[in-house]
Design a protein that fits this description.
With 181 residues, the protein is an alpha+beta fold. It contains 8 helices and 3 strands. It has 2 domains: 61 residues, 434 Repressor (Amino-terminal Domain) (Orthogonal Bundle); 96 residues, no CATH class. Helices cover 53% and strands 17% of the residues. A 3-stranded antiparallel β-sheet has the order 2-1-3.
Length: 181
């Protein structure tokens, strides 16, 4: 996935996803109780292709990039559902903090610089953005998660919780590292 989704998963899950494509395929087959039709539907493949992967006639590692991405997305969607639900519930009740070192730039009124630069920030995620952030996690949408994390950091750091710089448009990218607490 991406840095943000991986950091969120590390925060709320106790075990990592299977690393290899074969391990991910086996996890998906276990989840679907060996039903190749349901696995094929979830991956957007034919049932026969899934049967070949299951039997070992074809190596799933040599599949198209789209198939491998779909496999990872589907496995991550089902990975540790109870642990994930508990982690999300805890984060919503206690709050969530982002610690990151990334490139921040912004568009502001004339007379100020909008050159982006690396900054190290530690800020809380506003409660109104938590649901959107966890929805992006469940969908495996790195781009949406980056947009939400950038907005959270902009609200708390640059706009000071909405008390200043209301029209400031912040860009968040080139992430060196990111962690959630």
């Amino acid at each position: 996935m991406g840095k943000i989704i991986d950091a969120l998963r590390a925060r709320i899950q106790t075990r990592s996803l299977p690393k290899t494509a074969r391990g991910q395929f086996n996890a998906l087959m276990r989840k679907e109780k060996g039903n190749t039709a349901r696995v094929a539907e979830r991956l957007g493949l034919s049932r026969r292709q899934v049967q070949r992967f299951a039997k070992g006639d074809r190596d799933i590692r040599k599949s198209k990039a789209e198939t491998l991405a779909a496999l990872r997305r589907e496995v991550s969607r089902d990975h540790q559902p109870r642990v994930t639900a508990k982690g999300i519930k805890d984060a919503k009740s206690r709050g969530l903090t982002i610690e990151t070192r990334a490139n921040f730039g912004f568009h502001a009124a004339a007379g100020s610089t909008d050159d982006s630069r690396m900054r190290r920030l530690t800020e809380g995620v506003p409660d109104e953005l938590l649901d959107d952030l966890f929805e992006a996690l469940s969908n495996g949408d790195e781009e949406k998660a980056q947009e939400i994390a950038g907005e959270a950091l902009a609200m708390e750091y640059f706009r000071d919780g909405g008390t200043r710089a209301g029209g400031l448009d912040v860009t968040f990218g080139d992430i060196d590292y990111i962690d959630f607490h």
